[in-house]
What we know:
By secondary structure, the chain is of the alpha/beta class. About 35% of the residues lie in helices and about 15% in strands. Helix 3 (about 35-50) runs parallel beside helix 8 (about 180-190) and helix 9 (about 245-255) crosses helix 13. The longest helix has 15 residues, at about 35-50. It is globular and about 60 Å long.
Amino acid sequence: MEALRSLFRAGKNAFGVLSRKEFHRSAVAAAQLTYRDALTQALDEEIERDETVFLLGEEVAQYDGAYKVSRGLWKKWGDKRIIDTPISEMGFAGIAVGAAMAGLRPICEFMTFNFSLQAIDQVINSAAKTYYMSAGAVPVPVVFRGPNGSSAGVAAQHSQCFAAWYSHCPGLKVISPWSAEDAKGLLKSAIRDDNPVVFLENELLYGVPFEVSEEFQSKDFVIPIGKAKVEKEGTNVTLVAHSRSVGHCLDAAVALAKEGIDCEVINMRTIRPLDIETIEASVMKTNHLVTVEGGWPQFGVGAEICARIMEGPAFNYLDAPAVRVTGADIPMPYAKILEDNSIPQIKDIIFSVKKVLHV
């Protein structure tokens, strides 16, 4: 009789089968937020927290931003905190750098980082070098943010990944978030940092919902710059990626698990400074390394990771040469079938993992 009572309390009948009521009960849904809304939250909270913070760029105010990241902020904060600029990247990037030198904390939005080339003199020669050249007397707390890397059907002049370009330069911090939590926590940290930060978002992630923690809801939620995250633990091979490629790695890991291959997936989060310690620890455990990025192969992020692994203690733990999965070494084609073959796909990651494991 006691056994029957315990089954009943567990929601099961005398045969140990879930009752109809228990069977149809839904699990508690996790809170979700899109990548775009996470960025909007971060901007809103930091503008509220610090009166020196303001956003400027093309169409960020009345139009709510080209990708609607600043949606609602102009109506809430007005013309002095959300500022529309002319179509002149060098001009408004220079205004942002000058404002940062004068004690403000500007957030400068590029409609795409491909257009940041128009302002690269301001980003590198003015922003990145001034703190050092002034012997620490003149900090430049500016955030350059906007979509980076390939999108869909926008061809070569809108599809380049600048993670390797900007992370080459001392004086800059370079962030490439993957999830909604990454986006909010790292953008808040970037705005509060006294160094110039290049914040590389991904256009194809803006509308993607991610599960978020209770901690995420706090206005004090930040993620430290320079610390990678192990998104999935594994034992057979280490996959290292940033931005949208992290999702591809997780999908590839699910497929490979069905074949008995256990992948560890590392979300870099920050490109500079590079958290090589987390990558080394993983390689020492799995003995295999595959890097994944959407950028070009030559002098890329994966190339730097491979070099650092070779130069450090993890090299002696490798059982096979590291493999890089990258974008094709060409300007991005317009045709969809060529575009798909120019950026890493899940199948490319699976092929590379099997290659490095000799299976």
